[in-house]
Amino acid sequence: VLVKHSSRTPKCxxxxxxxxxxxxxxxxxxxxxxxxxxxxxxxxxxxxxxxxSFTGSVEGGRQIQQSxxxxxxxxxxxxxxxxxxxxxxxxxxxxxxxxxxxGSMYNxxxxxxxxxxxxxxxxxxxxxxxxCEREIKKYVLGDPDNAKTTMGP
Length: 153
What we know:
By secondary structure, the chain is α/β, with parallel strands linked by helices. The chain folds into two domains: 2-78, no CATH class; 83-137, no CATH class. It is built from five helices and six strands; from the N terminus they run E-H-E-H-E-H-E-E-H-E-H. Strand 1, helix 1 and strand 2 form a beta-alpha-beta unit. Helix 2 runs parallel beside helix 3 (58-69) and helix 4 crosses helix 5. The longest helix is centred in the first third of the chain and has 13 residues, at 10-22. The radius of gyration is 20 Å and the shape is globular. The relative contact order is 0.11. The active site is at 78.
């Protein structure tokens, strides 16, 4: 298994493969790689690759599919979700804001279920924005190796 994370979060894949090794998986079973788009295309076109699973953008999915179609191998694509949240007229707006901010920032927003858009009833709109701003200001963007950082790349 070759694991290639986003170039913005390459350390994730190294932790992933390291934990497999620590759990007793055979050496080399799960390997992390750093590669650009053309290198990935070459890998997919290599006869030793039998399946590609990709989570990311629609454009990235098109590129993956194009490379895989040259060999007719199976591909699993999870592309460009737009996971919505809704704050209704009878919602606890403070709880909603806290949960929605956490839901959108969880895993730096790269979780497959991260909230990407929010519909708010007009009666809560202004208060919801204020509460979200308060929550977002609590995040400390920075180096994930720094203990004070609450949100990495």
